[in-house]
Write a structure and sequence with these properties.
CATH topology of one domain: Enolase-like, domain 1
Strand content: 15-25%
Order of helices and strands: EHEHEEEHHHHHHEEEEEEEHHH
Shape: globular
Radius of gyration: 20 Å
CATH superfamily of one domain: CO dehydrogenase flavoprotein, C-terminal domain
Strand order of the largest sheet: 4-5-8-6-7
Number of helices: 11
Structural class: alpha+beta
């Protein structure tokens, strides 16, 4: 790891000013991914601005939403009683997202900003990575593809977004509040991430130096059931091959509202809008669940190593819908 300067600001404004003024300066929070990338030479900031002691931690409950400070840890949010009762799929995603040790360090803001788990992005000996070296190519497209995306991809990048909790978050229309040198702004999570297109190195809409300060999680109506299912190669500490975060509001056998996020398949946390449309107003049935799954994966772009994900993602979504609805096919 190359030497770097360490700074501890007195407040959020000072932190934002310090990072905004220098493109080689970065924020430091939990550091569970950032320090690994620095050790591997993928990231090489000249200065780190430690924000861990800023007053950006805590959970505040309102009538219609929960406000979570960006420095709140995954474990602290998973332990929240309101989320356990009203948004169980958020808690499930948090618990399945990392080991207990990591959950006690990793922050909510940092989790949303975690970098791609692509082995080629994280290997500095691989020259061809458009995300790391724009214009150099994508080694993954001709390489080992199993853990890569099939939705939102381009001929420039197929790297997968790895966050678990971002999947129910994107289904819930979570709002990300940020602070920049020009003041605060609020960004819907559905608009926060950028698909790779021709610029895989630009992963979200944040300007350099903008700091996530809070995440606003809307509460679903009482009685709405939800579930997060994660399919992976092994149970312990592994990223998703496919996953689904589903919430259903039903009236009798009719689905009044459906919210669906898919993981393990998208270059960004994937909101399955077309599947939601299929289910809205439909009856609770295996046939309709399968139709929703077909709609969700329509347009998937596969390679030989990722083709299996289409059927696996469909089955994951159907099983999650059945679990939430309390039916079996």
């Amino acid at each position: 790891m190359r030497p770097f300067e360490y700074v501890r600001p007195a407040g959020a404004e000072q932190a934002v000013a310090a990072v905004s003024a220098d493109p080689r300066t970065s924020f430091l929070a939990g550091g569970t991914t950032q320090l690994d990338l620095m050790k591997d030479g993928i990231l090489d900031p000249e200065r780190l601005v430690d924000i861990t002691r800023l007053p950006l931690k805590g959970i505040m409950h309102g009538d219609s939403s929960v406000h979570v400070g960006a420095l709140t840890t995954m474990e602290e949010l998973a332990a929240d009683s309101v989320l356990r009762e009203r948004l169980p799929f958020v808690r499930e995603a948090l618990l399945l997202g990392a080991s207990t040790q990591l959950r006690n360090m990793a922050t909510i803001g940092g989790n949303l900003l975690q970098r791609a788990r692509c082995r080629y992005f994280r290997d500095p000996t691989v020259a061809a990575c458009n995300k790391r070296n724009p214009g150099s190519g994508c080694a993954a497209i001709a390489g080992i593809q199993r853990m890569h995306a099939i939705l939102g991809t381009s001929d420039q990048c197929i790297a997968l977004h790895a966050s678990d909790v971002a999947i129910p978050f994107v289904a819930l229309d979570v709002i990300v509040h940020v602070q920049g040198v020009d003041g605060p702004r609020s960004i819907p999570l559905t608009e926060f991430y950028r698909e790779p297109g021709t610029t895989p190195d630009i992963e979200n809409v944040l300007k350099h130096g903008e700091l996530i300060t809070e995440v606003e999680i809307p509460l679903l109506p009482e009685g709405v059931r939800s579930h997060y299912m994660k399919v992976r190669d092994r149970v312990s500490y592994e990223f998703a091959l496919t996953s689904a975060g589903v919430a259903l509001q039903t009236e009798g056998d009719t689905i009044r509202e459906a919210r669906i996020g898919l993981g393990g398949v998208g270059t960004v946390p994937w909101r399955a809008w077309s599947a939601e449309e299929v289910l809205r107003g439909a009856s609770v049935s295996g046939e309709n669940f399968r139709a929703a799954a077909e709609a969700a994966l329509e347009g998937a772009q596969t390679l030989p190593g990722t083709a299996f994900k289409v059927e696996l993602a469909k089955r994951t979504l159907v099983r999650t819908l059945e679990t939430v609805a309390g039916v079996q096919s």
